[in-house]
Amino acid sequence: MTDQEKLYEILGELLYAVAKADGVVQQEEKEALKNLLHNHGWAYEVNWSFEYEQSKNTDALEAYKKAISFCQHYGPSPVYQEFIEAMNIVAAAANGTDEHEEAIISSFSKDLISRFHRDMDLRD
Question: Is domain 3-123 in CATH 1.10.3680, yes or no?
Answer without folding.
Answer: yes
